[in-house]
Known about the structure:
heterodimer; A: alpha+beta; eight-stranded antiparallel beta barrel; globular; B: mainly alpha; Rna Polymerase Sigma Factor, Chain: A; Arc Repressor Mutant, subunit A; 8 helices; 70% helix; 0% strand
Amino acid sequence: MTHDRDLERVLERWLTDGPAQMPDRLFDAVIDRVDRTPQRRLAGLATRYLTMPSTTRLTAIAAAIVIAVVAIGSWALAGPNRSDVGGRPTASATPPTASPSLSPSPSAPPIADGTYALAPMKVADLIAMINSDTKLSAAEKTFLIDTAFAMKNGKTFGVWLDLDRGRLTERQAVDGVMNVGTGGTYTIPDAQTLIYNEQCACPPTTFRLAATGTSFTLQYVNPPTKEVDALPGRVLFESGPFVRQP
Amino acid sequence: MDRDLVEAARSGDREAYADLIRVRGDRLYALAQRVLRDVDRAEDALQDALVIAWRDLPGLRDPDRFDAWLHRLVVRACLAEATRERRLVAHLRVLPVDIPTTGDDFMSIADRDQLEQGFRRLTPQQRALLVLRHFEGREPTEIAEILGIPVGTVRSRLHHAHRAMRAALDAEDRVIAVGGRPA
Lengths: 246, 183
Protein backbone atom coordinates (compact mmCIF):
# COMPACT_ATOMS: atom_id res chain seq x y z
CA MET A 1 0.00 0.00 0.00
CA THR A 2 2.76 2.40 0.94
CA HIS A 3 4.46 1.91 -2.39
CA ASP A 4 1.39 2.79 -4.35
CA ARG A 5 -0.04 5.72 -2.47
CA ASP A 6 1.30 8.80 -0.93
CA LEU A 7 1.72 8.07 2.76
CA GLU A 8 0.66 11.50 3.91
CA ARG A 9 -2.54 11.42 1.88
CA VAL A 10 -3.40 8.01 3.25
CA LEU A 11 -2.77 9.16 6.81
CA GLU A 12 -4.96 12.21 6.37
CA ARG A 13 -7.82 10.14 5.03
CA TRP A 14 -7.42 7.41 7.64
CA LEU A 15 -7.21 9.81 10.58
CA THR A 16 -10.45 11.45 9.51
CA ASP A 17 -12.27 8.28 10.56
CA GLY A 18 -13.16 7.86 14.18
CA PRO A 19 -15.16 9.43 16.99
CA ALA A 20 -15.60 13.14 16.48
CA GLN A 21 -17.95 14.16 19.27
CA MET A 22 -17.12 14.54 22.93
CA PRO A 23 -19.64 12.48 24.91
CA ASP A 24 -22.02 14.53 27.06
CA ARG A 25 -21.07 12.49 30.12
CA LEU A 26 -17.44 13.50 29.64
CA PHE A 27 -18.40 17.16 29.43
CA ASP A 28 -20.52 16.76 32.56
CA ALA A 29 -17.66 15.03 34.38
CA VAL A 30 -15.29 17.87 33.52
CA ILE A 31 -17.74 20.51 34.70
CA ASP A 32 -18.32 18.59 37.90
CA ARG A 33 -14.58 18.46 38.62
CA VAL A 34 -14.13 22.11 37.67
CA ASP A 35 -16.82 23.04 40.19
CA ARG A 36 -14.76 21.37 42.88
CA THR A 37 -11.36 22.63 41.75
CA PRO A 38 -10.02 26.01 42.90
CA GLN A 39 -7.93 27.95 40.46
CA ARG A 40 -4.29 28.59 41.20
CA ARG A 41 -4.04 32.35 40.96
CA LEU A 42 -0.31 32.27 40.45
CA ALA A 43 0.16 28.95 38.72
CA GLY A 44 3.56 28.73 37.16
CA LEU A 45 5.01 31.43 39.35
CA ALA A 46 8.36 29.75 39.17
CA THR A 47 8.28 29.41 35.39
CA ARG A 48 10.06 32.73 35.28
CA TYR A 49 13.20 30.64 35.09
CA LEU A 50 12.10 29.35 31.74
CA THR A 51 12.24 32.86 30.32
CA MET A 52 15.82 33.34 31.41
CA PRO A 53 18.59 32.83 28.87
CA SER A 54 19.98 29.35 29.31
CA THR A 55 23.33 30.66 30.55
CA THR A 56 21.62 32.76 33.21
CA ARG A 57 19.49 29.82 34.22
CA LEU A 58 22.49 27.55 34.52
CA THR A 59 24.31 30.18 36.55
CA ALA A 60 21.32 30.50 38.87
CA ILE A 61 21.07 26.75 39.31
CA ALA A 62 24.81 26.46 39.88
CA ALA A 63 24.66 29.25 42.45
CA ALA A 64 21.82 27.52 44.25
CA ILE A 65 23.80 24.27 44.33
CA VAL A 66 26.90 26.04 45.69
CA ILE A 67 24.86 27.77 48.38
CA ALA A 68 23.20 24.51 49.33
CA VAL A 69 26.54 22.67 49.52
CA VAL A 70 28.13 25.44 51.60
CA ALA A 71 25.11 25.58 53.87
CA ILE A 72 25.07 21.83 54.36
CA GLY A 73 28.78 21.91 55.08
CA SER A 74 28.30 24.65 57.64
CA TRP A 75 25.46 22.72 59.16
CA ALA A 76 27.61 19.62 59.49
CA LEU A 77 30.61 21.50 60.88
CA ALA A 78 28.52 23.36 63.42
CA GLY A 79 27.55 20.11 65.05
CA PRO A 80 24.45 19.23 67.00
CA ASN A 81 24.94 21.89 69.69
CA ARG A 82 24.95 24.94 67.45
CA SER A 83 23.02 27.80 68.95
CA ASP A 84 22.08 29.77 65.86
CA VAL A 85 19.39 27.53 64.47
CA GLY A 86 16.76 29.66 62.81
CA GLY A 87 19.07 32.60 62.23
CA ARG A 88 20.20 35.38 64.48
CA PRO A 89 17.74 36.17 67.23
CA THR A 90 15.92 39.44 66.92
CA ALA A 91 14.30 41.68 69.47
CA SER A 92 10.91 40.20 68.63
CA ALA A 93 12.08 36.60 68.57
CA THR A 94 10.34 34.19 70.88
CA PRO A 95 12.60 33.09 73.73
CA PRO A 96 13.50 29.40 73.51
CA THR A 97 11.71 28.65 76.73
CA ALA A 98 8.49 30.38 75.80
CA SER A 99 7.14 27.64 73.58
CA PRO A 100 9.13 24.44 73.87
CA SER A 101 6.97 22.52 71.44
CA LEU A 102 7.63 25.00 68.65
CA SER A 103 11.22 25.92 69.37
CA PRO A 104 13.61 24.48 66.83
CA SER A 105 15.90 21.78 68.08
CA PRO A 106 18.88 20.16 66.41
CA SER A 107 16.77 17.24 65.30
CA ALA A 108 13.68 19.18 64.25
CA PRO A 109 13.14 21.34 61.17
CA PRO A 110 13.43 25.09 61.86
CA ILE A 111 9.76 25.59 61.04
CA ALA A 112 7.03 23.25 62.17
CA ASP A 113 4.08 22.14 60.09
CA GLY A 114 1.12 24.46 60.32
CA THR A 115 -0.49 27.52 58.81
CA TYR A 116 1.46 30.77 58.70
CA ALA A 117 0.02 34.14 57.74
CA LEU A 118 1.27 37.51 56.64
CA ALA A 119 -0.20 40.58 58.29
CA PRO A 120 -3.24 41.65 56.23
CA MET A 121 -2.49 44.17 53.50
CA LYS A 122 -4.66 46.91 52.08
CA VAL A 123 -5.70 46.29 48.50
CA ALA A 124 -5.49 50.03 47.80
CA ASP A 125 -1.83 50.02 48.84
CA LEU A 126 -1.06 47.03 46.64
CA ILE A 127 -2.83 48.53 43.64
CA ALA A 128 -1.00 51.82 44.16
CA MET A 129 2.30 49.98 44.35
CA ILE A 130 1.56 48.10 41.12
CA ASN A 131 0.36 51.19 39.28
CA SER A 132 3.44 53.14 40.28
CA ASP A 133 5.83 50.43 39.13
CA THR A 134 7.44 51.85 36.00
CA LYS A 135 8.85 48.47 35.00
CA LEU A 136 5.38 47.07 34.36
CA SER A 137 3.39 47.56 31.19
CA ALA A 138 -0.27 48.53 31.35
CA ALA A 139 -1.28 44.98 30.39
CA GLU A 140 0.94 43.53 33.10
CA LYS A 141 -0.58 45.83 35.70
CA THR A 142 -4.06 44.72 34.67
CA PHE A 143 -2.99 41.09 34.76
CA LEU A 144 -1.56 41.41 38.26
CA ILE A 145 -4.52 43.32 39.71
CA ASP A 146 -7.36 41.45 38.01
CA THR A 147 -5.98 37.95 37.64
CA ALA A 148 -2.86 37.14 39.65
CA PHE A 149 -4.04 38.83 42.83
CA ALA A 150 -7.74 38.87 41.83
CA MET A 151 -8.19 41.89 44.05
CA LYS A 152 -10.06 44.37 41.89
CA ASN A 153 -12.68 46.18 44.00
CA GLY A 154 -11.39 44.50 47.15
CA LYS A 155 -10.31 46.05 50.42
CA THR A 156 -8.07 43.64 52.28
CA PHE A 157 -5.59 41.09 50.97
CA GLY A 158 -4.32 38.19 53.03
CA VAL A 159 -1.68 35.53 52.37
CA TRP A 160 -1.29 32.19 54.11
CA LEU A 161 1.26 29.43 53.70
CA ASP A 162 0.18 25.94 54.67
CA LEU A 163 3.07 23.64 55.49
CA ASP A 164 2.07 20.04 55.83
CA ARG A 165 4.53 17.16 55.72
CA GLY A 166 6.60 18.61 52.91
CA ARG A 167 3.71 20.12 51.02
CA LEU A 168 3.39 23.88 50.63
CA THR A 169 0.19 25.62 49.61
CA GLU A 170 0.05 29.37 49.21
CA ARG A 171 -3.43 30.74 49.70
CA GLN A 172 -4.57 34.28 49.26
CA ALA A 173 -7.85 35.94 50.10
CA VAL A 174 -9.48 39.20 49.12
CA ASP A 175 -12.10 40.28 51.67
CA GLY A 176 -12.24 36.72 52.90
CA VAL A 177 -12.73 35.08 49.49
CA MET A 178 -10.00 32.47 49.32
CA ASN A 179 -7.99 31.43 46.28
CA VAL A 180 -5.13 29.02 45.92
CA GLY A 181 -2.08 30.85 44.65
CA THR A 182 0.53 28.21 44.11
CA GLY A 183 1.18 24.76 45.47
CA GLY A 184 3.92 22.16 45.53
CA THR A 185 6.45 20.53 47.79
CA TYR A 186 9.30 21.98 49.79
CA THR A 187 12.44 20.87 51.52
CA ILE A 188 14.59 22.54 54.16
CA PRO A 189 18.08 21.19 53.55
CA ASP A 190 19.49 23.42 56.28
CA ALA A 191 18.27 26.00 58.78
CA GLN A 192 18.76 28.89 56.35
CA THR A 193 17.42 27.43 53.11
CA LEU A 194 13.97 26.52 51.88
CA ILE A 195 13.64 24.98 48.43
CA TYR A 196 10.20 25.16 46.87
CA ASN A 197 9.23 22.80 44.06
CA GLU A 198 6.12 24.27 42.58
CA GLN A 199 3.73 21.78 41.01
CA CYS A 200 4.58 22.65 37.44
CA ALA A 201 7.20 21.90 34.84
CA CYS A 202 9.70 24.32 36.30
CA PRO A 203 12.92 24.23 38.30
CA PRO A 204 12.87 24.63 42.07
CA THR A 205 12.95 28.05 43.72
CA THR A 206 15.44 28.60 46.50
CA PHE A 207 14.73 30.96 49.39
CA ARG A 208 16.89 32.13 52.24
CA LEU A 209 15.02 31.16 55.36
CA ALA A 210 15.16 32.93 58.72
CA ALA A 211 13.05 31.15 61.29
CA THR A 212 12.40 32.25 64.85
CA GLY A 213 10.28 29.44 66.19
CA THR A 214 6.80 30.78 65.61
CA SER A 215 7.53 32.86 62.55
CA PHE A 216 9.85 32.98 59.58
CA THR A 217 10.83 35.14 56.63
CA LEU A 218 11.75 34.16 53.10
CA GLN A 219 14.01 35.88 50.61
CA TYR A 220 14.72 34.84 47.06
CA VAL A 221 18.24 33.63 46.40
CA ASN A 222 17.72 34.45 42.72
CA PRO A 223 14.93 36.99 42.33
CA PRO A 224 12.94 36.73 39.11
CA THR A 225 14.34 38.90 36.36
CA LYS A 226 11.02 40.05 34.91
CA GLU A 227 9.16 42.53 37.06
CA VAL A 228 5.80 40.93 36.33
CA ASP A 229 7.17 37.76 37.96
CA ALA A 230 9.23 39.49 40.62
CA LEU A 231 6.48 41.65 42.08
CA PRO A 232 4.10 38.82 43.06
CA GLY A 233 7.04 37.00 44.59
CA ARG A 234 7.99 40.03 46.64
CA VAL A 235 4.43 40.50 47.87
CA LEU A 236 3.64 36.87 48.55
CA PHE A 237 6.92 35.52 49.86
CA GLU A 238 9.11 38.42 50.91
CA SER A 239 6.56 40.54 52.79
CA GLY A 240 7.10 38.52 55.94
CA PRO A 241 7.21 37.62 58.63
CA PHE A 242 4.90 34.66 58.25
CA VAL A 243 3.45 34.09 61.70
CA ARG A 244 2.18 30.73 62.85
CA GLN A 245 -1.59 30.66 63.29
CA PRO A 246 -3.28 28.99 66.26
CA MET B 1 -15.42 37.19 21.76
CA ASP B 2 -13.30 34.23 22.80
CA ARG B 3 -10.78 36.57 24.29
CA ASP B 4 -13.50 37.92 26.57
CA LEU B 5 -14.46 34.38 27.55
CA VAL B 6 -10.85 33.45 28.27
CA GLU B 7 -10.38 36.55 30.41
CA ALA B 8 -13.60 35.83 32.28
CA ALA B 9 -12.64 32.19 32.85
CA ARG B 10 -9.18 33.28 33.92
CA SER B 11 -10.81 35.41 36.57
CA GLY B 12 -12.80 32.47 37.91
CA ASP B 13 -15.97 32.47 35.80
CA ARG B 14 -16.90 28.80 35.49
CA GLU B 15 -19.70 29.44 33.01
CA ALA B 16 -17.26 31.14 30.70
CA TYR B 17 -14.92 28.18 30.95
CA ALA B 18 -17.77 25.78 30.21
CA ASP B 19 -18.55 27.81 27.08
CA LEU B 20 -14.93 27.65 26.01
CA ILE B 21 -14.63 23.90 26.30
CA ARG B 22 -18.08 23.26 24.88
CA VAL B 23 -16.92 24.77 21.61
CA ARG B 24 -13.55 23.02 21.62
CA GLY B 25 -14.50 19.72 23.20
CA ASP B 26 -15.21 17.75 20.04
CA ARG B 27 -11.98 18.73 18.39
CA LEU B 28 -9.91 17.99 21.49
CA TYR B 29 -11.66 14.69 22.05
CA ALA B 30 -10.96 13.66 18.48
CA LEU B 31 -7.33 14.64 18.91
CA ALA B 32 -6.94 12.61 22.11
CA GLN B 33 -8.69 9.56 20.66
CA ARG B 34 -6.49 9.55 17.60
CA VAL B 35 -3.26 9.84 19.56
CA LEU B 36 -4.19 7.18 22.11
CA ARG B 37 -6.30 4.92 19.84
CA ASP B 38 -8.42 4.06 22.86
CA VAL B 39 -11.70 5.74 23.74
CA ASP B 40 -11.48 5.22 27.51
CA ARG B 41 -7.93 6.46 27.77
CA ALA B 42 -8.73 9.42 25.54
CA GLU B 43 -11.57 10.39 27.85
CA ASP B 44 -9.32 10.11 30.91
CA ALA B 45 -6.60 12.19 29.32
CA LEU B 46 -8.96 14.87 28.07
CA GLN B 47 -10.75 15.13 31.40
CA ASP B 48 -7.45 15.55 33.24
CA ALA B 49 -6.22 18.14 30.76
CA LEU B 50 -9.38 20.23 30.93
CA VAL B 51 -9.37 20.27 34.74
CA ILE B 52 -5.67 21.21 34.81
CA ALA B 53 -6.42 23.95 32.28
CA TRP B 54 -9.09 25.38 34.55
CA ARG B 55 -6.83 25.19 37.59
CA ASP B 56 -3.86 26.85 35.91
CA LEU B 57 -5.73 29.27 33.64
CA PRO B 58 -4.91 32.32 35.80
CA GLY B 59 -1.26 31.74 34.91
CA LEU B 60 -1.94 32.21 31.19
CA ARG B 61 -0.73 35.73 30.49
CA ASP B 62 -1.90 36.10 26.91
CA PRO B 63 -5.53 35.07 26.29
CA ASP B 64 -4.83 34.90 22.55
CA ARG B 65 -2.61 31.90 23.18
CA PHE B 66 -5.36 29.96 24.91
CA ASP B 67 -5.90 27.47 22.10
CA ALA B 68 -2.25 26.61 21.66
CA TRP B 69 -1.85 26.35 25.42
CA LEU B 70 -4.90 24.10 25.74
CA HIS B 71 -3.71 21.88 22.91
CA ARG B 72 -0.38 21.55 24.63
CA LEU B 73 -2.06 20.43 27.84
CA VAL B 74 -4.15 17.86 25.98
CA VAL B 75 -1.17 16.47 24.11
CA ARG B 76 0.83 16.30 27.33
CA ALA B 77 -2.01 14.50 29.06
CA CYS B 78 -2.17 12.04 26.17
CA LEU B 79 1.55 11.38 26.35
CA ALA B 80 1.32 10.88 30.11
CA GLU B 81 -1.61 8.53 29.65
CA ALA B 82 0.23 6.61 26.95
CA THR B 83 3.24 6.03 29.14
CA ARG B 84 1.22 4.60 32.00
CA GLU B 85 1.05 0.90 32.35
CA ARG B 86 -1.05 -0.39 29.54
CA ARG B 87 -4.34 -1.82 30.55
CA LEU B 88 -5.17 -5.37 29.63
CA VAL B 89 -7.84 -4.21 27.25
CA ALA B 90 -5.23 -2.29 25.31
CA HIS B 91 -3.88 -5.61 24.13
CA LEU B 92 -7.20 -6.70 22.77
CA ARG B 93 -7.83 -6.24 19.13
CA VAL B 94 -9.91 -3.15 18.45
CA LEU B 95 -12.72 -3.79 16.02
CA PRO B 96 -13.95 -0.74 14.16
CA VAL B 97 -17.60 -1.54 14.73
CA ASP B 98 -18.41 1.74 16.46
CA ILE B 99 -16.25 3.90 14.30
CA PRO B 100 -17.99 5.78 11.52
CA THR B 101 -16.08 5.80 8.27
CA THR B 102 -16.06 8.18 5.37
CA GLY B 103 -18.12 5.68 3.44
CA ASP B 104 -15.97 5.56 0.36
CA ASP B 105 -13.88 2.82 -1.11
CA PHE B 106 -10.65 4.69 -0.65
CA MET B 107 -9.35 2.14 1.84
CA SER B 108 -10.34 -1.42 2.44
CA ILE B 109 -10.89 -2.84 5.91
CA ALA B 110 -7.54 -4.58 5.50
CA ASP B 111 -5.85 -1.29 4.70
CA ARG B 112 -7.35 0.37 7.74
CA ASP B 113 -6.34 -2.52 9.95
CA GLN B 114 -2.83 -2.36 8.56
CA LEU B 115 -2.66 1.35 9.27
CA GLU B 116 -3.98 0.78 12.78
CA GLN B 117 -1.33 -1.81 13.51
CA GLY B 118 1.41 0.31 12.03
CA PHE B 119 0.32 3.43 13.88
CA ARG B 120 0.22 1.59 17.20
CA ARG B 121 3.85 0.63 16.73
CA LEU B 122 4.90 4.27 16.78
CA THR B 123 5.91 6.03 19.96
CA PRO B 124 3.24 8.26 21.56
CA GLN B 125 5.28 11.32 20.59
CA GLN B 126 5.39 10.24 16.96
CA ARG B 127 1.66 9.58 16.97
CA ALA B 128 0.97 13.02 18.44
CA LEU B 129 3.08 14.65 15.75
CA LEU B 130 1.30 12.80 12.94
CA VAL B 131 -2.13 13.60 14.35
CA LEU B 132 -1.34 17.29 14.74
CA ARG B 133 0.05 17.41 11.21
CA HIS B 134 -2.30 15.15 9.25
CA PHE B 135 -5.52 15.27 11.26
CA GLU B 136 -5.47 18.85 12.48
CA GLY B 137 -3.57 20.06 9.45
CA ARG B 138 -1.22 22.17 11.53
CA GLU B 139 1.93 23.68 10.14
CA PRO B 140 5.26 22.84 11.78
CA THR B 141 5.39 26.31 13.34
CA GLU B 142 2.05 25.70 15.06
CA ILE B 143 3.10 22.24 16.17
CA ALA B 144 6.29 23.72 17.57
CA GLU B 145 4.28 26.17 19.66
CA ILE B 146 1.93 23.46 20.90
CA LEU B 147 4.69 21.04 21.81
CA GLY B 148 7.12 23.69 23.01
CA ILE B 149 9.95 22.54 20.79
CA PRO B 150 11.87 24.25 17.96
CA VAL B 151 10.42 24.16 14.44
CA GLY B 152 13.48 22.35 13.16
CA THR B 153 12.93 19.64 15.73
CA VAL B 154 9.32 19.30 14.61
CA ARG B 155 10.38 18.83 11.00
CA SER B 156 13.03 16.33 11.97
CA ARG B 157 10.68 14.34 14.15
CA LEU B 158 7.97 14.40 11.51
CA HIS B 159 10.43 12.96 9.05
CA HIS B 160 11.32 10.19 11.47
CA ALA B 161 7.65 9.56 12.25
CA HIS B 162 6.85 9.19 8.55
CA ARG B 163 9.75 6.85 8.11
CA ALA B 164 8.71 4.82 11.15
CA MET B 165 5.14 4.62 9.88
CA ARG B 166 6.31 3.48 6.48
CA ALA B 167 8.60 0.89 8.07
CA ALA B 168 5.76 -0.34 10.27
CA LEU B 169 3.47 -0.68 7.27
CA ASP B 170 6.16 -2.47 5.31
CA ALA B 171 6.63 -4.84 8.24
CA GLU B 172 2.90 -5.53 8.22
CA ASP B 173 3.14 -6.23 4.50
CA ARG B 174 5.86 -8.79 5.13
CA VAL B 175 3.82 -10.49 7.86
CA ILE B 176 0.88 -10.76 5.50
CA ALA B 177 3.05 -12.08 2.69
CA VAL B 178 4.59 -14.78 4.86
CA GLY B 179 1.78 -15.85 7.14
CA GLY B 180 -1.45 -14.30 5.98
CA ARG B 181 -3.32 -11.72 8.07
CA PRO B 182 -1.30 -10.33 10.95
CA ALA B 183 -2.33 -11.51 14.41
